[in-house]
């Protein structure tokens, strides 16, 4: 029985990792970007890892995606001639950005977000944050002041003030904080993938979140589970 249990665990661990087409690195699925070939022979990004078909996995990096396109690696992996859109890396960035903003919107609707400089400062004095958010186009001085109140917290500054505002139901947002929990953890994970396509305004990360390796890579992803558990919302 013990041997069977270990075999099952080893099998599950093997299922949770994939090899990048370009670098050959084996990483958790949640840290990679999956693509598939649609019935018309076009490469389609599947950042939620839910589309049918054989997955073509890449490290979450603009350079890696562009290399795969330039070296015709999608056709080699698919063992067939496939059409690769010229804007594949830009499309992946947009999809990952939308996942991040969707998670932030869910956190807002769940009452887990505080926005505004003074409110964020007050929240940080009262409790530890799940994640700090600072608009990448905001003033560095204000960001540094907020950062000083929680120096060990993860700070995400990949988003513009307009993008943060759109997710939070405001015209513009410079500072926000998400309470600890599954949504904050999922946001960090997704932002780790986004960082490969849209670097943070300032390298203010903590831990291993830049590569997304904080997650287990199990399907569905941690981000998907957080979305579903929060409101029943499911990404496609």
Q: What topology does this entry show?
A:
Layout: H1 2-15, E1 17-19, E2 26-28, E3 32-37, E4 43-45, E5 56-59, H2 62-70, H3 73-78, H4 88-109, E6 113-115, H5 117-126, E7 131-134, H6 140-149, E8 155-156, H7 161-168, E9 175-178, H8 182-194, H9 222-231
Parallel strand pairs: 7-8
Antiparallel strand pairs: 1-2, 3-4, 3-5, 6-9, 7-9
Helix pairs in contact: 4-7, 4-8, 4-9, 8-9
Short account of what is shown:
This protein has 236 residues and is α+β, with helices and mostly antiparallel strands. Helices cover 43% and strands 14% of the residues. It has helices spanning 2-15, 62-70, 73-78, 88-109, 117-126, 140-149, 161-168, 182-194, 222-231, and strands spanning 17-19, 26-28, 32-37, 43-45, 56-59, 113-115, 131-134, 155-156, 175-178.
Provide an overview of this structure:
- This protein is of the alpha+beta class and 236 residues long.
- The chain has two domains: 2-89, Hypothetical Cytosolic Protein, Chain: A (2-Layer Sandwich); 92-231, 60s Ribosomal Protein L30, Chain: A (2-Layer Sandwich).
- The chain has nine helices and nine strands.
- The strands form three sheets. Strands 6-9-7-8 form a four-stranded mixed β-sheet, sandwiched between helices.
- The longest helix is centred in the middle third of the chain and has 22 residues, at 88-109.
- The termini are far apart.
* Annotation, overall tally of beta strands: 9
Strand content: 5-15%
Major sheet: order of its strands? 6-9-7-8
The whole-angstrom Rg is 19 Å
Instruction: Kindly identify the CATH topology of the largest domain.
Output: 60s Ribosomal Protein L30, Chain: A
- Poorly predicted regions are 1-12, 203-220, 225-236
What structural category characterises the helix and strand content? Answer: alpha+beta
**Could you give the order of the helices and strands?**
HEEEEEHHHEHEHEHEHH
The geometry reads as elongated
CATH architecture of the largest domain: 2-Layer Sandwich
**Percentage of helical residues?**
40-55%
Average pLDDT reading:
84
Count the domains: 2
- CATH homologous superfamily (4th level) name of the largest domain: Ribosomal protein L30/S12
Output the number of helix runs: 9
| Level-1 CATH class name of the largest domain | Alpha Beta
């Amino acid at each position: 029985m013990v041997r069977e249990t270990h075999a099952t665990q080893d099998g599950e661990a093997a299922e949770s990792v994939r090899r990048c087409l370009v670098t050959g690195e084996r990483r958790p699925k949640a840290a990679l970007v999956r693509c598939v070939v649609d019935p018309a022979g076009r490469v389609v990004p599947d950042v939620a890892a839910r589309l049918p078909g054989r997955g073509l996995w890449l490290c979450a990096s603009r350079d890696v995606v562009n290399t795969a396109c330039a070296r015709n690696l999608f056709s080699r992996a698919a063992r067939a001639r496939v059409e690769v859109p010229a804007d594949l890396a830009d499309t992946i960035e947009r999809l990952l950005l939308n996942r991040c903003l969707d998670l932030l919107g869910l956190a807002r609707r769940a009452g887990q977000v505080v926005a505004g400089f003074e409110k964020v400062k007050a929240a940080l004095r009262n409790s530890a944050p799940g994640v700090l958010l600072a608009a990448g186009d905001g003033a560095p001085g204000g960001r540094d002041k907020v950062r000083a109140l929680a120096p060990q917290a993860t700070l995400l500054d990949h988003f513009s003030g307009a993008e943060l505002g759109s997710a939070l139901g405001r015209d513009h947002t410079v500072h926000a904080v998400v309470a600890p929990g599954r949504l904050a953890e999922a946001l960090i994970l997704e932002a780790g993938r986004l960082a490969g396509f849209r670097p943070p305004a300032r390298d203010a990360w903590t831990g291993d979140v830049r590569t997304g390796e904080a997650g287990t890579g199990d399907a569905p992803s941690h981000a998907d589970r957080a979305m579903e558990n929060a409101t029943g919302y499911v990404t496609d």
